[in-house]
Amino acid sequence: MKIIELTFPFETPLEGIPTSLVMALGDFDGIHLGHQEVIRRTIAAAKRLQVPAAIMTFTPHPRFVLGQAKYEQNLTPLIEKTETFSKMGVEFIYLIHFTTAFSQISPKMFVDQVLSSLGIQSVVVGFDFTFGHEGKGTPEVLQNLSEGKFSVEIVPPYDLQGEKVSSTSIREYLCEGKMEQVRDLLGHYYRLRGIVVTGDGRGRTIGFPTANIEPLEAYVIPGKGVYAVRCKVQGAIFNGVMNIGSKPTFTDDVKQTLEAHLFDFNASIYGEQMEVEFIRFIRQERKFSSVDELIKQIHLDAEEAKRILD
Questions:
Q1: For 7-25, what is the mean pLDDT?
Q2: Please, are residues 249 and 268 in contact by the beta-carbon 8 Å criterion?
Q3: CA trace torsion 28, 189, 245, 236 (10° rounding)
Q4: What are phi and psi of 300, to 5 degrees?
Q5: Non-local CB neighbours of 7 within 8 Å, separated by 6+ positions
Q6: pLDDT tens-digit map of 77-133
Q7: Which of 9, 32, 191, 245 has the fewest CB atoms within 10 Å, i.e. is most exposed?
Q8: How confident is the model at residue 287 (pLDDT cuts 50, 70, 90)?
């Protein structure tokens, strides 16, 4: 797979790009089931036409550039997004650096000066794809503006049990700790990658040593609370329980931490990379009246996590 990074206006002529391809367009935040359908159709069309399958996506998230600060956090950071595209069979990724200036171009300029310069034979977009200044470009507008230069396939909404699959819904479910609903819309459990860093060591003193995780990227973090998790570290997978929050029993500090206690595990893993899968929410974080009360609750949390994960 080849990644081609571009900033508008493009330098011409562009080097190392195919002269004909099928391209999917979108941010693909999370690469949920609806996105996966768009990508599958792109690859199928490319095979029919015997040309490469490509994706055009954007960094950072367009909504972040347009002032929505929460979109600095990603469901799927760029490096993981490209890994997934490659696994699905995409051959080229056109990575557009989304800027305020780029957000101002008209839908016609997007077609004439961006898409038409890339050797596109066919475009595949989701039903809700928008482009151009103020998002005035729609899939139907794209069809009209293509003027026969390329075909446009519009993928209808992907519904799951009567619910439209969307990145917005996934973000809301994560905030609410509804991990099973997140899994259903993504097609897999939500996961993040981080580095195990030194914490305050308090977990070990109360009989529950924890790995403090510092996320590698700006992920959307699930809502505060305790979760049953699966963690991959040093090439092995371990069940565990994770707390996301500020440890109110011990401190008034509002800084949020991610701490995982792995079952049947006692190796030193400081500095190691860990991938965490969030399986199910167990309870809200709360302040306990004593350390003994907290220890009792952690035992209950661990038993509940083992029941869930078994």
A1: 85
A2: no
A3: -120
A4: -65, -40
A5: 96, 97, 99
A6: 999 999 999 999 999 999 999 999 999 999 999 999 999 989 899 999 999 999 999
A7: 9
A8: confident
Taking a C-beta distance cutoff of 8 angstroms, is the pair 114, 131 a contact?
A: no
Contact 292, 202 (CB under 8 A): no
Q: Is the pLDDT of residue 200 over 90?
A: no
Does the reported pTM lie above 0.85? yes
Asked if 301 contacts 241 with a C-beta cutoff of 8 angstroms, the reply is yes
CB neighbour burial string for 168-180, b if at least 16 within 10 angstroms, e if fewer: ebbbebbeebbbe
Beta bridge partners of 23: 54, 123
**Residue 69 amino acid letter:** A
Place of tokens 């075909």: 151
Residue 207 has pLDDT above 80, yes or no: no
> Of 125, 126, 127, 96, which is closest to residue 113 (Cα–Cα)?
96
pLDDT confidence of residue 204 = 67
Angle between helices 179-186 and 167-176 (to 10 degrees): 160
CA dihedral 68, 74, 77, 81 (to 10 degrees): -100
DSSP the chain: -EEEEE-SSPPSSPSS--SSEEEEES--SS--HHHHHHHHHHHHHHHHHTS-EEEEEEES-HHHHTT-GGGGSBSS-HHHHHHHHHHHT--EEEEEE--HHHHTS-HHHIIIIIGGGTTEEEEEEETT--BSGGG-B-HHHHHHHHTTSSEEEEEPP-EETTEE--HHHHHHHHHHT-HHHHHHHHTS-EEEEEEEE----HHHHTT---EEEEESS-BPPPPSEEEEEEEEETTEEEEEEEEEE--TTT------EEEEEETT-----TT-EEEEEEEEEEE-----SSHHHHHHHHHHHHHHHHHHH-
